[in-house]
Recover the amino acids of this structure.
């Protein structure tokens, strides 16, 4: 062990130190251990700070420090005093002298640490060097020194030039580690006493009290060139750099004619002189050849760069096929609609809505020409037409088995029609359909009326959407730019508003296929309400502000939401409130999305006049994620006034897809097989 001081310690200071350290140090004294490297050796630095010293010695004697050599092995890490936090996320801790990475050594866990403490009695003296990667052990003498410092005992013969009795200490300066104590701030501030001394010397020189020494100009004889002490006072002994040679006519590419020969005397033949003619003469600078050894010097430079030590970094070669996830062949996922089978033409304006009946024999369509048509799917023949004064924006079948009730949104009313002309509307008992029994908090009545065998439910504005509950007694409606949802009951012929006004207009609404839940799609979020408890359960966010439509899977745990920016979002309600997957395949706004009730298929229609068919397999095993695969892009409609496919719907039993277009046609797509 050995200590370091910039100035020798005086005897009076030694006495103050011994008295201060004779007693046990207080609890606020600090003991610091650190590892550092110098002269290719490892050292441990032990510092102790004692705050109870006299104030007049606190600036120069604020503590003491010992530096002990731990091992003679060299440290290969050459990063210097770089913070180790820079290498926290890397696999290496630094570089060696040749530029190779030094990988981190894995620290032992708690079990290995316990086993080593049991097997090795001296393991508790091991110190881990994070920068060098080693684990040196403290000797018995070093441990005793640390215990003395922690106990407040001052080692003997610390002050003075004599070193402590440590084995292997030579006493030469080459084995001494530099002091790592921080330089005090006073050493960087100009001294007032030195400034006063300089002013005193200047005044003495001006007043003539101090005379400059007289130097003679006599040569001092031989002296050393590089010894500044041997030169005259006030003069520098540095030799001036040699002057470069002045160019002459021989360096010119086109010297004058009279200067193209040089005379060289031959000393062996007396006064005989010979003349040599200058050979390298060019009449233009562009004819001067290039530097002759240029290629050789360039090659040597490249050779030096090539042979210098460097770390070879392997380039990653990733084929594009490895980035894409493994997808099955679409032919293995059949059946799905691929080919146009039937085109139904009869509307004189764009078709706004379509709806196949639960049996799969009939199809309803509403158009901007203020007509509602009933089609036979097997033949594509129109069997009946209803004429209205307003355009039909939405149409839906009552899902109750054996019911032929059809609901259509015509202007500011919902029209209920019996498609078989029976005029008998089903009566549902109270215990068969129990959805919502709460009282209406706000008086919002929708008058019911009947004329010409049809039931009219009036609203305050134009109705844009109507959906049925799975039991066939309740149906919900929303109006254009409205901020509330109306629930109607067919058996009692009454209506009520179940929620307060929303701040954002509602775009779509749908019932849960199994539970008493209601999904409301606004321009920003998809809100899920519990109708029995009358609470908001969850709010889904897609990251866009232009949601347009949505559909729910038959299982009730997955929904798809379309937006006006052409993105289709798949939500797993058991996973998160953010989309599980976002598909951006459409170039225009998505107008409608639909799930198949039996097959793992879903489709989307857009203003780019295309309908996209996807495979969406929802596994019963919760450990497997949903498999989503794009299958087919159907291009059969033509755009009209910036609109393409207005609505799409699957056949209830077959893998067929119906699409309604702005060109006034309805197309049925089926599988090739």
């Amino acid at each position: 062990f050995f200590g370091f001081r910039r100035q020798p310690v005086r005897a009076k200071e030694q006495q103050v130190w011994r008295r201060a350290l004779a007693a046990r140090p207080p609890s606020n004294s600090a003991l610091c251990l650190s590892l550092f490297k110098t002269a290719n050796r490892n050292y441990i630095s032990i510092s102790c700070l004692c705050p109870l010293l006299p104030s007049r010695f606190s600036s120069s004697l604020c503590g003491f420090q010992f530096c002990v050599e731990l091992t003679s092995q060299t440290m290969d890490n050459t990063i210097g005093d770089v913070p180790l936090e820079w290498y926290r996320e890397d696999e290496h801790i630094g570089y060696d002298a040749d530029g190779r990475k030094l990988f981190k050594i894995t620290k032992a866990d708690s079990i290995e640490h316990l086993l080593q403490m049991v097997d090795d009695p001296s393991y508790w003296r091991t110190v881990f060097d994070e920068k060098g990667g080693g684990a040196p052990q403290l000797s018995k003498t070093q441990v005793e020194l640390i215990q003395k410092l922690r106990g407040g005992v001052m080692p003997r013969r610390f002050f003075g030039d004599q070193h402590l009795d440590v084995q292997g200490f030579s006493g030469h300066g080459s084995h001494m580690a530099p002091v790592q104590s921080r330089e005090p701030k006073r050493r960087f501030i100009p001294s007032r006493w030195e400034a006063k001394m300089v002013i005193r010397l200047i005044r003495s020189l001006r007043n003539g009290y101090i005379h400059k020494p007289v130097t003679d100009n006599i040569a001092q004889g031989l002296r050393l060139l590089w010894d500044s002490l041997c030169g005259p006072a006030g003069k520098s002994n540095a030799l001036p750099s040699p002057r470069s040679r002045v160019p002459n006519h021989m360096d010119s590419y086109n010297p004058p004619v009279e200067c193209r020969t040089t005379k060289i005397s031959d000393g062996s033949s007396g006064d005989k002189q010979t003349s040599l003619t200058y050979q390298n003469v060019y009449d233009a600078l562009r004819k001067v050849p290039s530097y002759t050894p240029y290629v050789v010097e360039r090659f040597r430079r490249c050779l030096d760069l090539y042979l210098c030590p460097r770390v070879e970094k392997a380039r990653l070669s990733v084929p594009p096929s490895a980035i894409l996830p493994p997808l099955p062949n679409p032919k293995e996922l059949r059946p799905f609609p691929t080919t146009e089978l039937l085109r139904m033409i009869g509307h004189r304006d764009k078709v706004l809505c379509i709806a196949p009946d639960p049996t799969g024999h009939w199809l309803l369509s509403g158009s901007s020409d203020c007509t509602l048509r009933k089609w036979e799917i097997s033949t594509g023949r129109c069997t009946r037409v209803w004429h209205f004064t307003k355009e039909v924006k939405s149409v839906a079948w009552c899902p109750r088995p054996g019911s032929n009730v059809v609901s259509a949104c015509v202007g500011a009313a919902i029209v209920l029609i019996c498609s078989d002309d029976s005029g008998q509307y089903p009566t549902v008992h109270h215990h068969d359909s129990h959805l919502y029994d709460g009282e209406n908090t706000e008086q919002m009545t929708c008058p019911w009326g009947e004329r010409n065998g049809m039931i009219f439910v009036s609203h305050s504005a134009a109705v844009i959407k109507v959906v049925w509950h799975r039991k066939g007694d309740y149906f919900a409606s929303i109006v254009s730019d409205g901020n509330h949802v109306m629930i109607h009951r067919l058996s009692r012929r009454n209506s009520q508003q179940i929620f307060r006004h929303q701040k954002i207009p509602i775009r779509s609404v749908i019932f849960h296929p199994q539970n008493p839940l209601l999904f409301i799609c606004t321009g920003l979020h998809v809100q899920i309400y519990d109708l029995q408890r009358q609470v908001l359960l969850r709010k889904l966010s897609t990251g866009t502000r232009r949601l347009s439509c949505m559909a729910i899977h038959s299982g009730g745990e997955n929904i798809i939401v379309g937006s006006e920016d052409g993105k289709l979002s798949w939500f797993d309600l058991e996973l998160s409130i953010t989309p599980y997957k976002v598909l951006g395949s459409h170039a225009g706004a998505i107008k409608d999305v639909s799930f198949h009730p039996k097959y793992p298929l879903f489709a989307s229609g857009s203003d780019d006049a295309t309908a996209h068919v996807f495979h969406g397999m929802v596994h019963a095993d919760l450990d497997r994620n949903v498999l989503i695969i794009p299958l087919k892009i159907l291009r059969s409609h033509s755009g009209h006034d910036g609109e393409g496919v207005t609505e799409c719907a699957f056949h209830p039993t077959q893998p067929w897809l119906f699409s309604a277009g702005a060109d006034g046609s309805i197309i049925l797509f089926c599988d090739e097989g």
User: Anything to note?
Assistant: The helical segments are 11-22, 110-119, 140-151, 192-207, 294-307, 320-323. The two ends are 92 Å apart (CA to CA).
